[in-house]
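Example 3.2
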Amino acid sequence: GASFGGADLEIPVGGSELAIDLIQLGNAPSAPYLTTQIVGQKGWSVTSPDISEEMSPGELRRVMLNVTPPLDAVHSLTVDLILRIRDADGSGLTEISIPARVEASRSYSVESVETWQVMPGGGGYPLAWVENTGNAASSINLTVIGLPEGWMVEGPSSVTVAAGELRGLPISLTPSSDWDGGSFVVRVGTNNEDNAQDEMMLEVVSSNSSWSRTPVFSLTMGGSALLEIHGTGPTSNVVDVGSGRALQWDPMGFWVLSDSASGMGSVLVDGSDSIPYRVNLVQITTRAITCSLSGFYGSLDAGCLIGAGDGDLSLHGMLIDDEGKIVDDLDVFLQTDESGYLNLSHDSWSPEPGVKAVSVRIYDEYGRLLVVKHTDISVRYSEYWNLAIIGLELDPPAYDPDSDTQRIRVLISRDGLQSYDGLDCRVILQAPGVEDRVHIVDVAGTYAPEPLIERPGSLDDGIEVSVRLSCSFPWDGDSDSSDDVSRVILAGAAGSSTRSEDFRTGAITAILIIVLGGVIIASRRSRAQQRDLEEMAKRILEERAARRKSVREANAPTPSRIAKVAEESVLPESKEVVGHEADEAPDDVEQDDDLDEFERRLNRLGR
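Structure, written as tokens:
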């Protein structure tokens, strides 16, 4: 057996001896055989003593193990010293685990550039940092001495820095309202819990741009820094001086600096002010991490591929929208030589319509940002809603163009949305020969809108005009586009020469139609009267012929043979004339000699 009750389990940085008490628990003398192993961090060294003498049953013997931690050992990390004891012949195995860690050693250093750029009305952070050169976390107290009256220091009075960490000073200056921009020098003093002290001098200068967050970044290889700059926004132009690349704006309020090299750098803001930064690359993992973010709302592909590598790795991935809300987050743990994929879902995301920025972010187990990837997504309202033109009215229906104007009333209906606030809509009048007329429409009122569009003065009656209703993104497509356009034919104008001519033409046409109808009717009536007259003429002629025949027969002498022949030649002819139809013309017209004027006219009418 063994014990370590009296051992000091904190090992100095340079190493030390660890006392272990061995106890013989058998019933026969034997020589112990001792082996050791350190689990928890590579680089620890343990030297075991060579024990060749036998131990009697019940004997207690103290042996010393020489333990040396590696140079990068940290006080917060505990390792396990595994001690295995057996007899020389391999029997009687005893195994114990002894926790150990390196002794705390606290030291630090502070550095900065010479100037502290401050924006009037905005303030600014300095490019200054503290580096923990010890092996244990340390709390560094901060003080700023030499500020003019009215100036303020914002930020914590102390900062905790992990072992080996380099961190920017999280303090900023807010100038007084009457600062004239003149420069001055301040002293930044620091000290830690072991009363180690350090200080630095900085010159405060006025600048059009300044940092709104410390410009000191600790990144992994291929990681991205998030730069926050006073007085900048989406329309600003920020260029990395070293690479010449324009930085990309993130809707969450920062600029993304990707693939930066370790060391000092600077960015140029809107071509005028240059402000410096520092990047410190840390080796957290050698694994390759590649993230993708593509697609559109409803079909968004967000995920990261983590390659195989040495050592276990724990990662935390998040999908975040432009309001800082976590859409999805996942943890992944990978063992040595194991690769994996982190897939993030947007199923629970229900953003408001508009252009939304989403980003994939990967952090290590210590909360350090390893990878950031973002893109913009266009989001339209996915549920049913509709704006429709249900009619066009001429107001007033009739008017005098010389003294009045006519307008087109657009009747609009709304359906599907509880609120129409924020919709930017318009109606557009289109007609041949005139430019489009655009009128803004407020569709968010209590009642559905009825905008009035003035009728173009150059358009005559009879011209067809169309009115189209449209809205700007993200309301540029409702659920039914067939009712977004309506048409009307202009009418109602009086007094213009063109319209008077149209009226005269219409009146003349109407009169001609009436006259033509009268002629047709009269023609039909004349033919009927003609038939009646023909019948009457026939009767009169027959009666007259009968009376003359009877008179001749009474007064005439007895006809001779020749006379009789003459009579026969006449009478048949008279009978033939009476028997003719009205549309036939007799060859012999001598019969009219015995008729008076009235009879002749009747005879001609019968023809």
